[in-house]
Amino acid sequence: MSISAPAVPNMPRTNRQAAVLAVCCAATAMASMDTAAVTVALPAIGRGLHGSMSGAQWVVVAYPLTLACLLTLSSSLADLIGRRAVFQIGLTIFAMSSLASSIAPSMGWLIASRVAQAVGGSMLTPVAMAIISAVFTDPGQRVRAIGAWSGSIVLGLAAGPLVGGFLVDAVGWPAVFWINAPIAAVALPLTRLIVPESRSKRPPALDPLDQLLVSGVLGLLVFAITEGPHRGWASPVTIGCLAGSVTCLAALLRYAPRHPHPLIDPRLFRSAPFTGAFVIAILTSAAMGGFLFLNTFYLQEIRQDSPLATGLALTPMALAMLLFGPMSRRLIARRGARRTLTAGAVLATTAAATLTATFNANPLPLTVYAIFGAGLGLLHTPLTATATAGLPPPQAAEAASLVAMSRQIGQTLGIALIGSMIAAQPDALTSSTTFHPPAHLSWLTITTLCAATLLITRISTAPKRINTVPD
Hints:
The chain is mostly helical. Helix content is 79%, strand content 1%.
């Protein structure tokens, strides 16, 4: 790995390291806050741009879907041409596309801007971790720095609903995009000034076909799920997209094992802990994405709460995530990842099952929201450690990247699934009576996702499977 940086007069190494960490954490928190903040703004966006439920889904889904497709590619690009350079490009694209989103005159414009935002976002989160790993050479300091950086992801997710609700109420929905510009405007020159350039000594080869197949699997599947209720599940477009997704998956499974440096290394899936963590990340992120999407429309369209009141109602869940995320590190040290993940899955499943029966209670079951958030907080942090358990360093880095990718896949699928259930009943948002059937089905789906997380946790973290390492 080669590292070079512009000279920063009179700045000790420890101060520069702290400054680099601060820049990376700020950019990562900005990117992770985006989807949660925009989700709370969806009803206002729909009214302002005269959008449909399908349009609302695409406004949110376009970001994590694009991010999932490009995370690994952007990380490889940074290893090839330089991490600081790619990070700066990402900040610029993210800021400019955020401003473009804020002036969108139509849903189509906004969705396209959200795709561009995700292109920039894909150059922030994985590249930030690589920069931190390059700057913090001492193993102990590196662990603490990555822990702080991981906390910034949870902080962004937790702050998103409240920040989004406040901005929509105080200014209007464009403000949820304006907030990104000043953060990027400060981070961009600081990146140039203090972040050292670094790149991999053995950068992976970029493979366009592999990237195209992964994008085809995800994009066609999500399009079918999102548009199925509107176009008809038996329509040629829906069936064609599902068939195309399966075809791309089959081609990927045939192509990847034959490629020396595939985008997704199939050998990693021989490791039970990695496979379990990959699936758990998809399931838990789907549950969280579905939770935020469902509650946003329930609180604002059915209960007629304001965006700020919606953000406040979701705050107990967010604060519990923020509290139990760091707590999970101590639990892992004392009890191990298996028990920590199991506790998180039990809490999330219990809360989701309770909300299936009580989601329309008055007052809102905010304590149950908090229990759900606590479960997700316990599940979030141990996944990367579980995925990389027993793997050699090169494969461990790739495994961590794929877990980040799987989180975006899960969020995309969760929003698409819950949105399609609401959209399947055209008058669902007109009254609490018509909203109840799709909402009940949605909560059952979220409960099933959490229960599946518990099952996969117990299977994949069994002691006899921990030592399974791919060749």
